[in-house]
Write a structure and sequence with these properties.
The protein is about 30% helix and about 30% strand. The protein has helices at about 15-25, 30, 35-45, 95-110, 125-135, and strands spanning about 5, 10-15, 55-60, 65-70, 80-85, 115-120, 140-145, 150-155. The protein has one domain: Aminopeptidase (3-Layer(aba) Sandwich), CATH 3.40.630.30. It is globular and about 35 Å long. By secondary structure, the protein is α+β, with helices and mostly antiparallel strands. It has five helices and eight strands, in the order ββαααβββαβαββ. It has an eight-stranded mixed beta sheet, with helices on one face. Helix 4 packs across helix 5.
Length: about 160
């Protein structure tokens, strides 16, 4: 089992079946935000693939699952990977998304396969922008995402890690 530990969280990799069950349990408005391409990749992924499956964000002291985070696919030929995260509304504002984004970023750089970690935010998501800024990401500009439309692109280079 793959686990990434941060100060207060264990990011625990789920199996493909656990990911698909979780997706089915999401409220319709949140489920609509989940990439159809990513769901197809999960269906064809073997257990243990950290680049294609979701991590549960487990608060270590309580054992509660407070959210989830994931890479949006394996590193590409240029060593770029994208991170995504979601905190259950009952646990927002407690730093869990910041820890998860930072933990995944550290994991990616430590893998030796990644030189740049990327994230996208919608223009009205100030909370996510603060999370990425705290994790050392820099706003690059606006890009057109094929699934999400116009988004802000954030990046952090391997050289900035440490």
């Amino acid at each position: 089992m793959v686990t990434v530990s941060t100060v207060n969280l264990d990011l625990v990799l789920q199996t493909p079946d656990e990911v698909l069950t979780w997706i089915d349990s999401l409220p319709p408005d949140i489920r609509a935000e989940v990439s159809a391409d990513w769901i197809a990749r999960v269906r064809s992924t073997v257990a243990g693939d950290p680049w294609s499956l979701t991590f549960n964000m487990v608060e270590r002291t309580s054992g509660s699952v407070v959210g989830s985070c994931a890479f949006k696919g394996p590193p590409d030929a240029e060593g770029i990977v994208e991170v995504a995260y979601y905190t259950d509304p009952n646990y927002c504002g407690r730093g869990f998304a910041t820890e998860a984004a930072g933990g995944l970023t550290e994991f990616a750089f430590a893998s030796g396969q990644v030189r740049l970690v990327r994230a996208h935010t919608k223009s009205d998501n100030d909370a996510s922008a603060r999370i990425l800024t705290k994790c050392g990401f820099h706003l690059v500009g606006e890009v057109m995402d094929p699934e999400d439309g116009l988004v802000f692109r954030w990046e952090r280079m391997q050289a900035e890690f440490g």
